[in-house]
Amino acid sequence: MGLMTLATNRKLEKEGIPVEFTPNADGTIPTLFVARTFRESAIYRKVFERISKPYKDELDAQSISEDDDLFIMTSVFAEVSVKGWKNVRLADGFGGIGKGDNGPDTDIEYTDENVGACLRALPDMFAQLAAISVDADKYRDGVLAGMAKN
To answer: Of 48, 108, 112, 145, which sits 20 to 30 A from 126 (CA to CA)?
Structure first.
């Protein structure tokens, strides 16, 4: 195995790979574009420090609540790792995200706040996206072509 097989596509890492979910009722496919996440990166640390600043005392004392921890992690992920989305909609009765008339026929506006709210409301989706974002294999050339075939 040569070293080039370990190389990742830097453009995919920065711009994100498309992660598709179950189609909407009209056949459109909800898709989030997820960049590769490095917790060691300067950008990640800077965003984490800004978002977690109000919780510094609790973090230092390791007494932060699960809800606050989830808020911090999803907010950081939304800002650093999710680079866009399309066809993201809410089921009936699923409110509090975005503004205006959200529903199964209305796309939710892409904002960091809306992404974070969706990730908090759907923790399994957050876990799936977080796992993808740290998997170097997902960001290698040719992987997208293979994903499209599956």
So the answer is: 145
CB contact at 8 A, 12 and 68: no
Side chain identity at 150, as an amino acid letter?
N
d(CA 19, CA 129): 8
Which residues, 6+ apart, have CB-to-CB distance to 27 below 8 Å? none
Q: Do residues 92 and 104 lie in contact, with contact meaning Cβ atoms separated by under 8 Å?
A: yes
pTM of the model: 0.83
What contacts 96, CB < 8 A, 6 or more positions away?
A: 117, 121
Tokens of 84: 């866009």
Question: Which residues touch 118 (CB under 8 Å, ≥6 apart)?
Answer: 88, 97, 108, 125
pLDDT tens-digit series, residues 84-97: 999 998 776 566 67
Query: CA-CA distance, 126 to 48, in Å (whole number)?
Result: 17
Tokens in use for 119?
């990730």
